[in-house]
Design goal:
Elements (H helix, E strand, L loop, with lengths): L2 E9 L9 E12 L5 E7 L2 E8 L5 E8 L2 H7 L7 E11 L2 E8 L7 E6 L3 H6 L6 E4 L6
Antiparallel strand pairs: 1-5, 1-8, 1-9, 2-3, 2-6, 3-4, 4-5, 6-7, 7-8
Length: 142
């Protein structure tokens, strides 16, 4: 199974670092359980995916994303009513990788997070966040 290894932080301060790419994201949750399973529907720019994540806290979670058509997305989207978010994702170079800065809108306006994905837990543990990263929230319930 595909493994997502990431660390997540709040953004420190008001300045947004220079991004190499920016894309809008609409996300709705079809299910979220106490034991860390999430089933979500996402539109990232013009790509639609059904995603499943499993795992409680820590750096690593199983993540599977399956492409869905625009028609399938439209059929499933109403089931996410009351459990949606809108954000803009900015891809920002950090050392030899990319950090993803998410700037939330609507009900979550004002929230700004940064996440970095890693090839291994060892690399994740060794990562030293730059000064513009704020408090770490890896494993916190969203």
């Amino acid at each position: 199974m595909p493994l997502e290894i990431e660390r997540k932080f709040l953004l420190n301060g008001d300045l947004l670092p220079a991004a190499v790419a920016t894309e809008p994201i609409e996300q709705g949750y079809l299910a979220a359980t106490e034991d860390g399973v999430e089933v979500r529907l996402r539109r990232i720019a013009s790509q639609c995916v059904l995603g499943i994540k499993r795992g409680e806290g820590g750096f690593s979670r199983v993540e599977v994303e399956l492409p869905v058509t625009e028609t399938q997305f439209a059929e499933l989207w109403p089931a996410t009513a009351g459990a949606r978010l809108v954000k803009t994702r900015h891809s920002v170079p950090v050392y030899d990788t990319l950090a993803y800065v998410d700037v939330y809108a609507q009900e979550l306006s004002g929230l700004r997070t940064v996440e970095v994905e890693f090839p291994s837990e060892e690399t994740a543990r060794a990562f030293t966040p730059p000064d513009w990263f704020g408090a770490e929230i890896t494993g916190a319930k969203e």
